[in-house]
Amino acid sequence: MMNMDLSTVIEEMETGDQDSALTALQSYNKQMNQCFTFNRDEQKDREEGKLQKHLGELVLGFLDRELQPSCLLACLETVRILSRDKNCLDPFTNQFAMSTLARYASIAVDSATTPAHSQSVDGQEEDAGGDEEETGLCSKVLKESSPPSENPDQEVIVEALKSICNILLHNETGQMVAADLQLIKGVAERLKQCHDPTWNYEVRFFDLRLTFLLTALRVDVRAQLAQELHGVSLLGNHLEATLGLCCSGTLETARAGFEGIPTEELPPLSRQQTELAMEILKILFNITFDINRRKVDEEEAAVYRHLGAILRHCLMSHADGEERTEEFHSHTVNLLGNLPLPCLDVLLMPKVQQGSIEYMGVNMDAVNTLLKFMEKRLDRGHKLKETLLPSLNLLTESARIHRETRKFLRSKVLPPLRDVKNRPEVGNTLRNKIVRLMTLIDTDVKDCAAEFLFVLCKESVSRFIKYTGYGNAAGLLAARGLLRGGKDPGIYSEDEDSETEEYREAKAQINPITGVVEEEQPNPMEGMTEEQKEYEAMKLVHMFDKLSRNHLIQPMQLGMDGTMTEMTTEDLHKLTNKPLLQSEDPPNLDSEDEN
Q1: Is the model's pTM score more than 0.85?
Q2: What spans are recorded as compositionally biased (Acidic residues) (predicted)?
Q3: Left (φ > 0), alpha (ψ -120 to 50) or beta: where does 419 sit?
Q4: 172 part of a folded domain
Q5: Are 277 and 269 in contact (CB under 8 A)?
């Protein structure tokens, strides 16, 4: 088959003959099938863009007719290819075009509301932009459109879904029209058929991809799926069906046909199962990201606990390949972080089996997997804010609310202290690695690392300093007003902070700032008289005063409430006016700045 340029394809389409159009479109589609990048900088390319838009209009005209199956499929393939170019989407972003594609995707609803203004991803109102004639056409268009056949061509459905996904990805108008057409309702109806073997992998995948894009890009659709369409239950059931799970007990899951076999010993999930599951996890993340900020009722809590049990299975499962497994676990961890905190106890629900990690009579397999996942991300050291914080935050909140989890994590991260000669941030233990995070510039990472260790210490200042050193701990303690010591109020059980013999023997020699025993340094004031010591102290105060007045530093002092407050010039002058020992002839340490 010979390649055709756009002008020739358009000429064949304008004849209106299906056979001529089919031949032209098949040639064009074959030629452009692997084209994913477009450039409109040059005049020639701009002219080609105009031709592409015209071709799109002609194809849509064909799609509004009765077509033979091969011509219908060729038209939809052309729309898919043209919709890759974000600069040529005008023909496809109106109500008529989107409803036509929705009809062929079998997700058109009987009637759809078309609000004059819809809420976009940033929560602001968008102007309809003068398309008043198109507003309200949705119902008319859908009534005139013929319903899909009882045995739809799934290849046609997939092509239409791909085109809609391309449009949503690149165009805000298309996103608004899709929301007005209530496409989420149509796709949700098919998502309910998760146990129906009729639908092949591609239909299921692009249903989920379309749902992900709608919930990622539209706040209103996100809320609609979560509330009106009961998205958490719907997608939880879909995830359960995708993984082939069955309920093996109270909030315990097992893969059908493998009941009684530990999850880690199950065969890896297939590539298709993993791909579908990850799409579901991403959608669930979109519609639950604010759940842990509000209280949920008993009915909602039951739904989230059931979802948590499924996510535990995901966490303990393996995909085909280490890289794919890590990606799968990453999406799982992200979603677990959205669940209401009281629902995280499902991670500890499974009974202890042979080969399980048991601590205080509780199955710690899931918590241990989370810890290993976090350490792997920590060792990699790449984009820590994006890759590490979800798992570190999840471990922190789990430890805060579950005593067994906290004690298990403390035994792994903060075991009884024996090394008193190396600084807390030096070494390759997990404690050393996390304390090193507390020295980073990125405040989100350092604060999260400090919070994790602080929770493992039951928010005890003395214990926290013992394991991290006062210098590393100062940031968190200052933020909490705990620099004078004490303990934050929290729900923690009483347990002993067992001291090793090594620590007990060296305790008196440990420098609290660095957290280690240091070589004894000579006293710089040895041999000085009291007057000389006073002179050096006053000299230092004047230096601070000068730096402060030149705005080079901001001296701070510790308030009675344990928080840091700024030292004013008056505060520094008080130090100079009330020395410990008043010499007979006070030295002029900074005459050039005297008034």
Answers
A1: no
A2: 123-135
A3: beta
A4: no
A5: yes
